[in-house]
Amino acid sequence: MTEELYHFIDGARVKGTSGRTGDVNNPATGEVTKQVPLASADEVRAAIASSAQALPGWAATPPAKRAQVMFNFRDQIRSNLTEIAELLSSEHGKTVEDAKGSISRGLEVVEFACGIPQLLKGEYSENVAGGVDSYAVRQPVGVCAGITPFNFPAMVPMWMFPMAIACGNTFVLKPSERDPSTGLRLAELMVEAGLPKGVLNVVNGDKEAVDTLLTDPTVGAISFVGSTAIGRYIYETGAAAGKRVQALCGAKNHMIIMPDADMSQAVDATIGAAFGSAGERCMAVSVAVPVGEETADAFVKELAPRVQSLKVGPYTDPAAEMGPVITAEAKERIERYIDEGVAAGADLVVDGRGLNLQGYEDGFFVGGTLLDRVTPDMSVYKDEIFGPVLSVVRQASYEDAKQLVVDHEYGNGTAIFTRDGDTARDFTQSVNIGMVGVNVPIPVPVAYHSFGGWKASLFGDHSIHGMEGVRFYTKLKTVTARWPSGIKEGAVFNFHAGSDTAPG
Ligand code: NAD
Question: Of all protein residues, whose CA lies closest to atom 9 belonging to ligand 1?
Answer without folding.
Answer: 176
